[in-house]
Amino acid sequence: xxxxxxxxxxxxxxxxxxxxxxxxxxxxxxxxxxxxxxxxxxxxxxxxxxxxxxxxxxxxxxxxxxxxxxxxxxxxxxxxxxxxxxxxxxxxxxxxxxxxxxxxxxxxxxxxxxxxxxxxxxxxxxxxxxxxxxxxxxxxxxxxxxxxxxxxxxxxxxxxxxxxxxxxxxxxxxxxxxxxxxxxxxxxxxxxxxxxxxxxxxxxxxxxxxxxxxxxxxxxxxxxxxxxxxxxxxxxxxxxxxxxxxxxxxxxxxxxxxxxxxxxxxxxxxxxxxxxxxxxxxxxxxxxxxxxxxxxxxxxxxxxxxxxxxxxxxxxxxxxxxxxxxxxxxxxxxxxxxxxxxxxxxxxxxxxxxxxxxxxxxxx
Length: 364
Description:
The chain is an alpha+beta fold. The chain has helices at 2-22, 97-102, 107-123, 128-133, 135-150, 169-253, 257-272, 286-291, 293-296, 323-348, 355-359; strands at residues 23-26, 30-36, 39-44, 47-50, 56-63, 66-70, 74-77, 83-94, 155-166. 57% of the residues lie in helices and 17% in strands. Strand 7 (74-77) and strand 8 (83-94) form a beta hairpin. The termini are far apart.
């Protein structure tokens, strides 16, 4: 009986182990490579799979997702014999799990070595400045070479990125000095251009200001000259009218020798008022001098000794005004003034009659 139980237990254990080896569950985005007696048999897809126990074996489980591998920095010599350190990042995906398993022992290490050799080959044909500024070109070159070489390994290189390019410290220092010098040069150039633009704008402003000032001075001089001309014209017209009035008054008055003697007597006190006249002597024969004054003036041309006959007015053109017209004008002005005074008084005292209203003559 105990032997039968032991046999039954061994049978159950065998069945469990056989089932475990028969049923294989492959995760998503994985592929199982099955070998039979050490030889490739099939590739299992994700999900539940059944194999022959103790004969078939899932030897490799390949990840079918896109993978990212970052390689450590590698020294690379440029065309101008400078050593730079370059680290890269590779994005790849396994397309054929069988080729990735049997065509290459370690495809990740193979991709790393191929990347380094290809990178040395590409960067070796560039100088330092071109290497630092040609990352896209380096990426395209690496992608083309890796894609062609890894195709037979069942690997598809999606993208290659240069993560960093580090030149030697001495080169970094020189580059920083060069960049600083370039920036200082650009700053000086920009400052000079700004000063030039400022000088140009200042000169243009001064030019426009001078032009405007000159135009203003010219207009001012023109207006001043016009004002002076009009002032001189008006002054000359006034002096002409004054001369005509004096001349008309002289001819209207018909002066004679007695009038000139009277004017002479009136001017004598004014002559004595001068500061230069320290002593003024009045002769006792002043009466006789005055009697003979008329005879001394006989020689003055245009002054008659005796005024006889009717007075003749000298015609003065349109500006002549008769005595009657002047009297009428003065009378009209006097009446207008009287009426204005009466109106002001009546406005000040509405209830009181203004006697000026009765006395004011009517205007002719």
